[in-house]
Design a protein that fits this description.
This protein has 193 residues and is of the alpha+beta class. It contains 7 helices and 8 strands, in the order βαβββββαααβαααβ. The strands form 2 sheets. The chain has a 6-stranded antiparallel sheet. The termini are far apart.
Length: 193
C-alpha cells in the first residue's frame, strides 16, 4: 500500500463540478517550488511534480482510494534528493513516502483560481515528446485529406500534453496535433471534430 492522499478527494470533486480532468497548483517543499499537476484522465491517475528552475519532473501514479505509489525510479530519487539539496545521512534517510506524506498535509482545500491547465504548462515538464521545443498547441491537421497518417510520435505528444480523450480521437480520426515554438501562434485547445 502506498500513501493515502485523502485530501485529493475534495479537489477531485471540485474538478468534476467544473468539468476539469487536469489541474495544477503550487507546492513548496523545503526551499523548492513545484508545479503539481493532477491528471484524472489517465489510468491510474497521475501526479506530475515539476521542480521550478531545476529542469526536473517526476510522476507518481495514484490508484483507487487516493493511494499514491511512493516508489520512484532510482534516477528520479537521486535527482529529487539533489534538487532538494539533501546529502546522504545514514541516520536520516530521505524517503519518497515522507515527501508524499508532507505533500498530502499541504494539499489545498479548494481549487486554486488558476487551476486550469494549458498544454504549454505541461510541456515544460513532459519533455519526452517529439519536437519538445514546440510547446504551444496551434490546432489540428486532418491527415486523411492529405493522404497521410498520424505518426505514433505525434499521438504520444498529443496524449502527454492534451490528454487521453484527445489522443483517442486523433488516433481514431487520423488527426495530428499541431505545435509551435512561438507563443503568438498558440490557439485555445478544443477537441478535434
Amino acid at each position: 500500500m502506498g500513501v493515502i492522499l485523502s485530501g485529493l478527494g475534495p479537489l477531485v470533486q471540485q474538478m468534476r463540478q467544473r468539468g476539469l480532468q487536469r489541474i495544477r497548483w503550487p507546492y513548496r517543499h523545503s526551499r523548492v517550488s513545484f508545479d503539481v499537476f493532477l491528471f484524472t484522465d489517465e489510468t491510474p491517475w497521475c501526479l506530475l511534480f515539476g521542480a521550478k528552475a531545476h529542469n526536473f519532473a517526476f510522476s507518481v501514479p495514484v490508484h483507487r482510494g487516493y493511494d499514491a505509489d511512493p516508489n520512484l525510479a532510482p534516477e528520479d530519487y537521486r535527482r529529487l534528493c539533489e534538487v532538494l539539496g539533501l546529502k546522504y545521512d545514514p541516520n536520516k534517510k530521505f524517503s519518497p513516502r515522507a515527501f508524499l506524506d508532507d505533500f498530502g498535509r499541504a494539499l489545498p482545500a479548494k481549487l486554486p483560481a488558476q487551476a486550469e491547465v494549458r498544454p504549454h504548462d505541461i510541456a515544460l515538464y513532459r519533455k519526452d515528446v517529439e519536437e519538445s521545443e514546440k510547446i504551444y498547441f496551434c490546432g489540428w491537421r486532418d491527415n486523411t485529406l492529405r493522404g497521410e497518417s498520424v505518426s505514433q510520435a505525434n499521438l504520444h505528444k498529443t496524449k502527454q500534453l492534451l490528454g487521453v480523450a484527445a489522443y483517442e480521437r486523433c488516433r481514431a480520426k487520423n488527426i495530428s496535433s499541431r505545435w509551435s515554438a512561438d507563443a503568438e501562434a498558440a490557439a485555445k485547445f478544443t477537441m478535434p471534430i
